[in-house]
Write a structure and sequence with these properties.
single chain, 84 residues, two-stranded parallel ribbon, 56% helix, transferase
Length: 84
């Protein structure tokens, strides 16, 4: 089982989060609230993740392709040298 941590900056997530009624923890000063929340959560996310991906300005499809490629490469490495 893999746990993927999608790293994103405030600039990347702000357009989706600012003013969203679905994010009550971010009402008010959304940027500082998000940064404080991520400062608390990031160590846990990093400790639990088997793969960490910087989403940057990539599309969801590009991030998904990067994850799939990385996981597929890892699966190939894990089975190299195994004799059936």
């Amino acid at each position: 089982m893999h746990r993927v941590y999608l790293r994103a900056s405030w600039d990347d997530v702000a357009p989706r989060l600012v003013g969203s009624a679905d994010r009550p923890l971010l009402h008010g000063d959304a940027e500082n609230s998000w940064k404080a929340l991520m400062d608390r959560r990031r160590p846990v996310f990093e400790a639990l993740a088997t793969l960490s991906v910087d989403t940057g300005h990539n599309t969801a499809a590009e991030v998904a392709a990067q994850i799939a490629g990385t996981l597929a490469a890892g699966s190939r490495r894990a089975t190299e040298g195994v004799i059936a």
